[in-house]
Specification:
Structural class of chain A: alpha/beta
Number of helices of chain A: 13
Oligomer: heterodimer
Distance between the termini of chain B: 55 Å
Shape of chain B: globular
Order of helices and strands of chain B: EHEHHEHEHHHHHEHHEHHHEHEHH
Strand content of chain A: 15-25%
Structural class of chain B: alpha/beta
Helix content of chain B: 55-70%
Shape of chain A: globular
Number of helices of chain B: 17
Number of strands of chain B: 8
Number of strands of chain A: 9
Strand order of the largest sheet of chain B: 2-1-3-4
Order of helices and strands of chain A: EHEHHEEHHEHHEHHEHHEHEH
Largest sheet of chain B: 4 strands, parallel
Amino acid sequence: MVTIGIPKGMFFYEYGSIWEDFFENLGFKVVVSKDTNRTIMDYGLKCCSNETCLPVKAFHGHMLSLKDTVDYVFIPRYHSTRKNEYTCPKICGLPDMAAVNLGGRLRILEAKINMDSQVKETKESIIRMARTLKIEPSKVLSEFNRVWKKHLDTKMDQAENKKSSKSRSGKKDAILLLGHPYVIYDEYLSMRLIKKLNNRYIDVFTPKDIDYETKRHNAFPYQGKTFWDIGFDLLGSAFTCAEDERVKGIVYLTPFACGLDAFIMEFIELQIKARNRNIPLLKLTVDEHTGEAGFDTRIEAFIDMIG
Amino acid sequence: MKITFPHMGNMYVPIKVLLDTAGIQYVMPPLNTKETMELGVVNSPEFACMPFKTILGDLIYGLRNGADFILFGGGSGQCRFGYYGDLLSEIIKNLDYDVKFVCLETTNITIKGVLEKISPLTKGKSRTDLIKGILYAARTVFLVDALTRLAGYTRCRELHKGDTDRIISKFQSSVQEVYGYKAIINVIKSTRKKLRGIPVDRKKKTLKVAIVGEIYAASHPGINFEVEKKLGNMGVEVHNHLSVSKWIFNHFIRNNLPFKTKDRFVVAGREFINTDDIGGHGIQTVGASIMCAKRKYDGVIQVYPFTCMPEIIAQSVLVEVQKKYGIPIMTLIIDEMTGEEGCMTRLEAFVDMIEMRKSKSLEFTQSGYETVAKNL
C-alpha cells in the first residue's frame, strides 16, 4: 500500500484534517509527522537558507523526519484560498523550495489550490496528482470537492461553540493571541505560549475562536480588498476583540523577519490607536535562537502590566 | 495642488516630462540622499522591505516641502507591494499631514476611473496636454534606459577611468534643472553624444555579469550602492535584466496584445518552479539566471531587499541553478543597515573569483567548483 506523509507544519494547522481525511478515503495510509521538537528543528535548519523564516525551516525538518517511512510527502501549493484571498509567497513556493532544498531525497506530491481566479488550475493539478498515484481522476476530484466543502463548513461554524464555552469558563481576563496558525498552535515554535497563559488564569482568544463572518466584516477598512487570507483573519480578530471589554491585551507572536506580519502588525497598531482604545500590544518575535527564559520574562512583565 | 512622487531608478526623468507637459506642479525629492531614507526608516515598520522605507521617505520629504497630493499605484498578487498604498496612506495620515492620498488599483483599472481619481490635479488643465504628457513620458522611459545601457557599455571599456561617471552625474544634475519635454530630450541627446565620444577600447574582453532580483533594489542606485557603477569601474560589463522600460512593456503593452505571449524568463524559470506566479519577480529571477548561464555569462548577482518573500524562494532555487548550470551566483541582500564598504568587498571578491575562473582551464574550474558546490 502506498503511504502518504503529511508534515505537521505550515498548512497543517488549518487544513491537516481535511487532507488526512482525503487520502484515507482514497485508500492510502497516511502518516503525520510528530510534533515539532529539537531534532526536527535541527534537520530543518541544516537544509534551508538563512533568510527563510522559522516555520518554513521547521516544515523542512518535518519533511526530512518522514523520509524513511513514506512513499510520498504531500505538499499542497496554496495560491489563493478564496476570492481575493491570497497566501504568503512562501506557502505558494513551498513545493519548489522543498524539492530544491531536500535535493531528491523525497518524492513530493503536490496539488495546487487556486480558488480565486483560476479554479481550473486546481482541477488540473488534482488530476495530475491522481495520475501520479495511478487512481481514477474523477474519484479524486469528487473526493476533493467533498473535503473542501467540509473545510469551508467547519471554518464557518467551529468558532460559535468555542467562544460560548470560553465565556463560561469563569476566568476574568482574556488576552488575544495573534499570529499565523502554524506559529501560535505549534507548541515548540510558540514555546507553549497558550498553556503558559492559561496557567496564569487568563483566557486566550485566537483567531480560530472568532467566527468567520464577524472577522471578515470587522476587517474593515480593507474589506473586499485584502488579499492575504491570514491578514484578513488577523485584522478581523484584532478589531473584533478591541471592542470586547474582557480582552485586556493583545499578544502578537511573529517569526523573525515575517514579511506579512510587518505590515499587518502596523495596520493593527495604527488602527487601534486611531480608535482610542487603550489596549496594550506586545510584539513577540521568535526565531531559532530565542531563549525560553527571556521569552517568559517578557510575557510575565506583560501580564503584570495588564493586571 | 502640488504633487510629490517617490524615486525609482531613472523614473524621475519621464515623470518630470509628464508633469511638465501637463502643467502640474510638483516637489521632487532629492536623488539618493541619506536624509530621505532616514525619514522613511523612522516611520516604517521594522521588517517592512527596503523599497517601502525609501518610498515613504521620499513622500514625507515631498510633503514637508509643500506637496499636498500623492498618487500611488498599488499592485496585486502575493507580494507585499499590493499593501503599499494602504499602509503608506495610513502612516502618512497618522503623521498629520494635510494631504490627499490617491491610490490606484492596478486590478480592474479603467481609464475613466483613473481620470476621476486624479481630477483635483487636472482641473483646469487641458486634456490633450495630459495625453501628450503620457506619450512623451513613455518615449522618455525608453530613451533613458537606452542611455543607461550605453553608459554600461562605455564604463567598462573607457580608456580614461571616470569619463562615463562624470558625464552621467552631469546628466543627472542638468536634467533636474531644465523644464519641459524638449529641453529634457536635448539633454538626453547631448549626453548620448558625449558618451559615444568617450575613447573606448572596443576589443577589450570584459567579464559579463547579469543583475537579477527584485526590481526596485536592482534598478534603484540609491539603495543598491550603485552596484552597476561599481562593477563597471572594475571592468565588468553589467546587464541589468530589470529595467523600468521592460516592466512597462510587460504590463501595459504585452498584456494588452490580442495574442498572449509569455515572458521568456518565466518560461525558463518553470524548470524549477512549478507554477506561474510566486509573487514579485521570483520566477523571473530564476529564469533570467538560467538564461544567462546558457548564454555564457561569467556570473550572476541577485539583489534583493531584506525580507523580500519571493526572492527568498528564488534564492533557495538559485543554489540548484548554480550546481546544474555551473554559473557563479552571488546574493546581495540590502537593508538600511548594510554598509557600503562590506558590499564593495564582496563585489570585489566576486569579480576576482570569476576572473580567475575564466582564466583557469575549464577542467580545473569545473572540478574546483563542484567541491565548493557540495559544501554549500
